[in-house]
Amino acid sequence: MRKDGNRPRRIAELIKRELAALIPRELDDPRAHHVTLTYAEVSPDLGHARVYFTLLAGEAEAGPVAAALNRASGFLRRALADRLRLRVVPELRFEFDRSVERGDRLTRLIDRAISEDRKGHKE
């Protein structure tokens, strides 16, 4: 039997899409309503899923929001099981996505280097 290497990726995208609809509608915690899911990855055995999120408030609220989402992971997993046609729904783990902030920081560094380089050429 051939293993489908794309299956974890497809399931991750499906989980992300369903969770994006579920979280604001089903969770009572108001902090969870400001969550944007950015990426999900599922282990090759389909047993675990990491779901990455960002917040409009930034990293300051990331810890409490991640804790709230992880506390609700069992509830969210059961809700996914009701909606998805999977034999087993992966265990969910939520983590703050720092890649967006890292990208912003790198962009600022590059802009500053270009600005300093231009100043050096004018002199």
Automatic annotation (TrEMBL):
GO terms for biological process: maturation of SSU-rRNA. One of its GO terms (cellular component) is cytosol. Gene3D superfamilies: 3.30.300.20. Keywords: Cytoplasm, Ribosome biogenesis. It is found in: Cytoplasm. The keyword Cytoplasm applies. GO terms for molecular function: ribosomal small subunit binding. One of several proteins that assist in the late maturation steps of the functional core of the 30S ribosomal subunit. Associates with free 30S ribosomal subunits (but not with 30S subunits that are part of 70S ribosomes or polysomes). Required for efficient processing of 16S rRNA. May interact with the 5'-terminal helix region of 16S rRNA. Belongs to the RbfA family. This is Ribosome-binding factor A. It comes from Sulfurifustis variabilis.
